[in-house]
Fold:
Amino acid sequence: MPEGLEPQSEPPFAHGHRTGPHLAGRLSAARPLPALLIVSGVVFDVLTPSHYSSAPFFACSPLIAAALLSHGATLVTAVTALTAMTTLTIIRRVPHTGAAVTEIATVLAVAALALGINRVVRRGDRKLASVRCIAEAAQRAVLPVPPARIGGLRVAARYLAAEADARIGGDLFAVQETPYGVRAIVGDVRGKGLGAVEAVAVVVGAFREAAEQERTLEGLAVRLERALQREGARRANLDQSEGFTTAVLAEVPPGTTALRLVNRGHPPPLLLHADGTVGEAYPGAPALPLGMGELGEWPDRVEEWEFPAGSTLLLFTDGVTEARDAEGNFYDPLQRLSGKQFRNPEALLDALTADVARHAGGPADDDMALLAIRRGDGRHRPAAITHALTPTTTRTVRIRTDNN
Structure:
């Protein structure tokens, strides 16, 4: 495995993966704490004079258990703490003094309170789990996990949310086989919340339909533009005045070694070759993002690149390139991946997400959507990455600004 990029197994939808495992580990480490407090209370009571009270140890134990353990375990902790407190009081104190009764009553009251708190916490956990399941179902409905092989290509996708409990956001990807080859999109909707999610649904839905029908990527981009304009007029949550979606459209036609791209204001994809060389598919002419057709007309240009066997196309959203380290330096995937080799697209995404997390030193500020597509398993050295634009591979269309 390449030095500096150790892969970590991640599911296709690894929401909040940069914080979830760490939090779970801390909670697991803290679970013995209630029992440790009881033991500490006994030791404190035995080693100190009788006028010193060990009640705080026994009172804290069920309270901590309420937040960390199940209801049954919290009940066992409460009974154990109360029993230990009572036994020590009988052995080392006069059982009918006011101080002894007060200490026992305090532990009893706190234990009862802890059981009530535990019920509330567990009920909230169940509701949160239900909401997460619903949100994840919605996520998978909007962004279904692509199959590992499509049209002779190997495919891997990953969605990583910046928030630990997030399940859906404004980043998107889709890939499918069409009569014109395998087509894919990776995009990023401006904004957050319900409006961004609705825009994702519109773009992905329009892509699924238009990718099968449009002969060219330019035509596909026009269809996506019109879909956003049309749905923006119908849906209150879509932002027509400032909303837009950056996107890269890709096409791998059958029977060739070509890769065709249309970039609508999105971070340029990378082409990783079998020998470790990496190139940036930077667009020759910048274009406005989808959803900004009201600003006027501009050409859509299909640019063609060499995509030989053994090469991998990596598309990603700006959550990757905008991840910063402690000194404020942005993550540079071109530099970090150069010279590295990966056995398959999944290994590439595993290594990339782990490396971004290390660079950021914790959770990033933005979601990340990643899509890796590999052609075959060739091992020959590819030609240098250059634009292969000719009159037959560069076409111009005009975007209408109305909704017709």
Notes: Confidence is low (pLDDT under 50) at residues 1-11, 13-21, 378-404. The chain is about 40% helix and 15% strand.
